[in-house]
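Thread: "does anyone have the structure for this chain?"

Original post by V.I.:
We have the sequence but no experimental structure in hand. Need at least a predicted one for the grant figures.
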Amino acid sequence: MTQKAVEVDRDRHDASNVADSRERMLTEDEMVRLLMRERVRILGYVRSIVGHAEMAEDIFQEVAVVALRKRSEVTELRSPGAWFRKIARLQSMNAIRKKKAAGLDPAVLDLLDAVWDQRDLDGSLRVEGLRECIGKLPDKIKRVVELRYNQSLGSQVVANQLSLPINTVYVYVSRAHRMLKDCIERYVARKTQQQGS
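Reply from O.Q.:
Generated one for you, tokens below.
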């Protein structure tokens, strides 16, 4: 598991903690964090609709304003990307109409939305699978993974803390990658099959 994968997992975990199923309004800070985390994706999505980077930046600002204003309506936000894309789509279409600019055909946009939604679903399933699969790792390997990735410790530091040879840490990390990859793939396949039934 790469540091990037752990950061993505941590971000998604933070988002689920920020917007868990408790009946409460997201704070302004929580919404801003979600917006900043999703910024590049939102900008990419908007730019694919409007075709102009500067216009996309302006629309992102409008998306942020709308999201902050509507945060009181949101008590659960498990898929912030999808919610932000809905806002971005409306803001993009409004901007295209106002400027009488060329934009993405709505039928093509519907196809694009389906791809983005599937990507969000796949990513969410992978994160759920990662959480479940880490719990299934053998204790020695799990401890190395926790120190190496959750606490961002270097391999040598992990080896020293656990009184293990450095090569053992490398072997455990390699095994964890392989075990997690296989386990997550099985998890996603199982969940996808269950959702299709």
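V.I.: this helps a lot. The mean pLDDT is 78.
O.Q.: and Residues 188 and 194 are 10 Å apart (CA to CA).
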